[in-house]
UniProtKB/TrEMBL annotation:
Residues 115-291 form the Glycosyl transferase family domain. Residues 393-521 form the Penicillin-binding protein transpeptidase domain. This is Penicillin-binding protein. One of its GO terms (biological process) is regulation of cell shape. Residues 1-55 are annotated as: Disordered. In the N-terminal section; belongs to the glycosyltransferase 51 family. The chain crosses the membrane at residues 72-94. Signal peptide: none annotated. GO terms for molecular function: penicillin binding; peptidoglycan glycosyltransferase activity; serine-type D-Ala-D-Ala carboxypeptidase activity. Residues 32-42 have a biased composition (Low complexity). It catalyses: [GlcNAc-(1->4)-Mur2Ac(oyl-L-Ala-gamma-D-Glu-L-Lys-D-Ala-D-Ala)](n)-di-trans,octa-cis-undecaprenyl diphosphate + beta-D-GlcNAc-(1->4)-Mur2Ac(oyl-L-Ala-gamma-D-Glu-L-Lys-D-Ala-D-Ala)-di-trans,octa-cis-undecaprenyl diphosphate = [GlcNAc-(1->4)-Mur2Ac(oyl-L-Ala-gamma-D-Glu-L-Lys-D-Ala-D-Ala)](n+1)-di-trans,octa-cis-undecaprenyl diphosphate + di-trans,octa-cis-undecaprenyl diphosphate + H(+); Preferential cleavage: (Ac)2-L-Lys-D-Ala-|-D-Ala. Also transpeptidation of peptidyl-alanyl moieties that are N-acyl substituents of D-alanine. GO terms for cellular component: outer membrane-bounded periplasmic space. Keywords: Carboxypeptidase, Cell shape, Cell wall biogenesis/degradation, Glycosyltransferase, Hydrolase, Membrane, Multifunctional enzyme, Peptidoglycan synthesis, Protease, Transferase, Transmembrane, Transmembrane helix.
Length: 533
């Protein structure tokens, strides 16, 4: 073992020197500290080296603007903490609100006695239906168009929401991407305003709702609150508006077209805007092909399906023609009898079956149009003030089977068939004759009254045997009919004959007969006098 220094400038360690092993160290000039001297070279050197390294790492120019990895990591951790904290704060602060009034409002459905529909009327054209009434193929069409993974994925799509929110904030327009749950929350709870605040609320409410309701409940609500165009809210109203049928009667192609409308109703209504046909058929094909892709529809069935052109949109409202008078009369009947209060009826959701019979209703309307209104002369002042109203009653039941309220409810709101300030005129004459037969009445001469009994039909003939104020009714057009039978007087509606007949029977008995046949006792002007006839 040699005592020579391994490195020039260094000497072998002197074991007699005090201190740790570094005591054998010498300076670069060949000197070394003597006994008791404090070594200083190691610490100074290390300090100098660190300073040099810092000088070498110091960034200059544009590099000084770039963040370090420590800064980036800190920003990521801070952002994550803010997101997590913001989520928990938002989740606890945003509650599920009550449903908005527009989402729960429905129309009332009015039906003929045979169950066919007369009309729908209400503040909103909607009839909510359970999911069980919506055919499976219609459900699949909607899922294919809007959210194919609805039943398997969470309530929200954060990525799509971030894109939509960013576009809204930066003014780049709105962007879709909401799940069916989010769309239902917008329709049912929030409204249609397009703001970042609404999107945030929609996010948290959707998550909460997904925990509280089943997928079927959410899907049913979505189908019943979505807008399909033509003033139709909900799948049932849409089926009536576009195909004139109930939702359970839709086929696959029709269901796919209604699903197409959800994306942009006005852009895909091919009857209101024929120029949209190409765009609508392409969107419809997209929905049908998506059903094939999800194995909800076979390729063979898809190949044999053609585009289902919808009906022309009705230009009239749900209360035009006689329909408005029917709605008014039914509402009056229900509320006056305490069956339902006016506010509850206004909120809608009722299916009301009437006693009206479609063939008789249509025949009544046609008869008035052909025999009365079509013959009016607009240049004749009297014709301009003519009003027609009436009802057809089934004698055995008292059911109203047909009704005519006026020329058109949208032009004349007063129902001539039910208004109480109109005298019934000659329509009361059958009650007078019925009272005569029922009571075995006799004339002033003691002759039993029959259809062949003769009366004096002279115009403005004073009534005999009446102890009240003198009464001498005029006949229509002041015609003198002379001696005339009750049968002929009924056919010609001769006032002079029936006023006398009412006195012969007894006005009080006529009144009781009418009440016994179903006429309300509080009917205005139902007074026992010759003027009843």
């Amino acid at each position: 073992m040699s005592d020579e220094a391994a490195t020039p400038g260094w000497q072998p360690r002197d074991p007699t020197l005090g201190g740790p092993a570094r005591a054998g160290r010498v300076f670069r000039d060949g000197t070394h500290p003597g006994p008791g001297a404090r070594p200083t070279g190691g610490r100074a050197e290390r300090t100098a080296l660190r300073a040099a390294r810092r000088r070498r790492r110091r960034r200059t120019g544009w590099r000084r603007l770039l963040p370090t990895w420590r800064m980036l990591l800190g920003a990521v951790l801070l952002g994550a903490a803010l997101l997590v904290g913001g989520f928990f704060v938002g989740y606890h602060l945003v509650a599920i609100p009550p449903a908005n009034a527009a989402a729960t409002a429905q129309s009332n459905v009015y039906l003929y006695a045979d169950g066919s529909q007369i009309t729908q009327a209400g503040d909103v054209n909607r009839e909510s239906v359970p999911l069980s009434r919506v055919p499976r193929w219609v459900q699949h069409a909607v899922l294919a168009a809007e959210d194919r993974d609805f039943y398997t994925k969470p309530a929200v799509d954060p990525g799509a929401m971030v894109r939509a929110g960013w576009n809204t904030v930066t003014g780049k327009g709105t962007q879709g991407g909401s799940t069916i749950t989010q769309q239902y929350v917008k329709n049912y709870y929030l409204g249609q305003e397009r703001t970042l605040v609404r999107k945030v609320k929609e996010f948290f409410i959707s998550i909460k709702l997904d925990r509280e309701k089943s997928k079927d409940e959410i899907f049913e609500g979505y189908l019943n609150t979505s807008f399909y165009g033509r003033n139709a809210y909900g799948i049932q109203a849409a089926a009536r508006a576009y195909y004139g049928k109930d939702v359970q009667d839709l086929d696959t192609a029709e269901g796919a077209y209604l699903a197409t409308l959800l994306n942009a109703p006005s852009a895909y209504d091919v009857t209101a805007h024929p120029a949209n046909m190409d765009k609508a058929t392409r969107r419809w094909s997209y929905v049908m092909d998506a059903m094939v892709g999800e194995r909800w529809l076979s390729r063979a069935d898809r190949a044999g399906t053609t585009f289902p052109a919808p009906y022309e949109a009705e230009a009239t409202t749900g209360v035009s023609g006689q329909r408005g008078y029917i709605v008014q009369a039914v509402g009056q009947y229900l509320t006056e009898r305490g069956i339902v209060d006016r506010e509850t009826l206004r909120q809608g959701g009722f299916r009301i079956t009437t006693t009206l019979e479609r063939p008789k209703q249509e025949a009544f309307t046609e008869a008035v149009d052909n025999q009365v209104t079509s013959r009016l002369d607009g240049s004749n002042e009297a014709d301009r003030y003519l009003r027609v109203g009436g009802a057809s009653v089934e004698p055995s039941t008292g059911y109203v089977v047909a009704m005519y309220g006026g020329v058109d409810y949208t032009r004349q709101y007063v129902n001539n068939a039910t208004r109480r300030d109109y005298q019934v005129g000659s329509t009361f004459k059958p009650f007078v004759f019925a009272a005569a037969v029922h009571n075995g009445a006799r004339t002033q001469d003691g002759e039993r009254i029959t259809p062949d009994t003769l009366y004096d039909g002279a115009n403005k003939r004073p009534v005999e045997g009446w102890r009240g104020k003198p009464y001498a009714p005029g006949n229509e057009d002041d015609v003198d009919h002379g001696p005339i039978s009750v049968r002929t007087a009924t056919d010609r509606s001769v006032n002079a004959v029936y006023a006398q007949l009412a006195v012969d029977v007894g006005p009080a008995k006529v009144e009781q007969t009418a009440i016994g046949l179903g006429l309300p006792a509080d009917t205005p002007d139902l007074n026992p006098s010759p003027s009843l006839a």
